[in-house]
């Protein structure tokens, strides 16, 4: 079962950002399935590395769009992006350093909460501006 599902209210009206949101959700669900399947630690670390890279790339695109349009909440939005990237790195470090680390609950809690809250709050405000 997927951890996250893409919903219509996640659409921004910017096809590049929307496509990347879908790809990120797919990758998060791949990581979730890997954890549920008890894949090897190396497999989980590989997916976390890919997730961090894709999230970083996506944020760079989103932040460029915000700066280009002189979005008033760009600094707050970027700070939230940095917080998520830090959380992904923290989870990756914990997986790497502790063979018995129980990272599934943390991943589910932090990533699901971040995406749902970030999409509902920060991205929703951005999307409202992008759609007009």
Question: What's the helix and strand layout?
Answer:
Layout: H1 15-36, H2 41-68, H3 74-97, H4 103-130
Which key terms come to mind for this protein?
elongated, Four Helix Bundle (Hemerythrin (Met), subunit A), 132 residues
Short description:
With 132 residues, this protein is mainly α.
Number of DSSP strand runs: 0
Q: CATH superfamily name?
A: Hemerythrin-like
Instruction: Please report the distance between the alpha carbons of the first and last residues.
Output: 35 Å
CATH class: Mainly Alpha
Q: Return the average pLDDT rounded to an integer.
A: 83
Structural class designation = mainly alpha
How large, in whole angstroms, is the Cα Rg?
A: 15 Å
Percent range for β-strand residues: under 5%
Query: How many domains, as an integer?
Result: 1
Question: Which architecture name does CATH use?
Answer: Up-down Bundle
Low-confidence stretches: none
Assembly classification:
single chain
Descriptive account of the structure:
By secondary structure, this protein is mainly alpha-helical. The protein has a single domain (15-130), classed as Hemerythrin-like (Four Helix Bundle (Hemerythrin (Met), subunit A), Up-down Bundle), CATH 1.20.120.50. 77% of the residues lie in helices and 0% in strands. The protein is built from four helices and no strands. The chain has helices spanning 15-36, 41-68, 74-97, 103-130. Helix 1 (15-36) packs antiparallel against helix 2 (41-68) and helix 1 (15-36) packs antiparallel against helix 4 (103-130). The chain is elongated. The N and C termini lie far apart (35 Å).
């Amino acid at each position: 079962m997927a951890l996250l599902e893409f919903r219509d209210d996640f659409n921004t009206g910017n096809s590049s950002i929307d496509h990347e949101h879908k790809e990120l959700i797919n990758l998060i669900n791949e990581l979730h399935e890997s954890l549920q399947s008890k894949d090897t630690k190396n497999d989980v670390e590989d997916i976390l590395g890919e997730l961090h890279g894709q999230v970083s790339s996506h944020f760079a695109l989103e932040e460029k769009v915000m700066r280009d349009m002189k979005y008033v909440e760009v600094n707050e939005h970027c700070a939230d992006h940095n917080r998520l990237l830090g959380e992904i790195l923290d989870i990756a470090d914990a997986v790497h350093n502790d063979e018995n680390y129980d990272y599934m609950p943390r991943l589910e809690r932090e990533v699901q909460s971040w995406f749902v809250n970030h999409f509902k709050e920060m991205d929703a405000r951005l999307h409202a501006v992008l759609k007009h």
